[in-house]
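Title: Prediction job returns without error message
Component: structure pipeline
Severity: low
Priority: P3
Assignee: unassigned

Description:
Job completed but the reporter wants confirmation the result is attached to the right record. Sequence as submitted:
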Amino acid sequence: MASYAGTYGQTYARLYPGRVRTLALDGSGSHVATGEWERLQLADAKANESLFRRFLDWCEKDAACSRIGSDPTRVWQTLVAKAERNPIPAPTAGVHYDGRDLRGHALGMVYRGPAEWVKLGQAIKKAQAGDASGFASAGARLPYIGVPTGFTECLDFPRPASAAEVESMRARSRKVAPNTGEPFTYVAMLGCVGWPLPVTNPPKPMPKGLPPFLGAGAWRESDLVKPVLAQVPGSGLIAHDGPGHTLYLDNECARAHMNRYFTDRVVPRNAAC
């Protein structure tokens, strides 16, 4: 099951463990945390920070990015702080972006790989001059993150109970991830605060007796599925050291491993694709 569908795959495995023959989680996160939700959120923030660090390290050395300044980390943090004080206009999108918006858009660009990093360097340079249009996704007027994509997240994941809890989590996230801040999942859940309905499908551990799962993912995603695999003995992982979201459709190596898993239940332990 790919992307967010992996949440439903994990839910199905908890409800009907005897009906699971194979379960592949491709580009999916964890829905198994209990009593450790904050720790996993901070791990998510660290994963984002590590990925963004790839861009900053590249930017220090690559001539295509050198125009933003000799210290990309300082330049980036200064720009975000400026946007948090006074959101920067993005005329082509008809909006203003604050610091959180810039972080979200920039991280989305980093996810797409080095081909997009040149554009990100240009966007930062342009934003330094007061125009954040380079951060706007094609045709996008809204911030990259900040609201849930639908009703489902509000019923599937814990939500902050108060403004004080939100600020506390923000502070802890920014300590471990000074360049990227709060993780996507936490920010998205802010849109669920005040919902009249409770969380009806909260994360829970996997039951015993399940057959081995197979996790798969590119940068960062291959790490986020590990807590699920750790709860199901014999599970395996396919990791792609590169950009992207989900592997089955575009990565021939990963697809071959997953097909063998589906047909013959052959579980690769730590496959690099």
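Comment from assignee: result matches the submitted record. Residues 144-148 have pLDDT under 50 and may be disordered.
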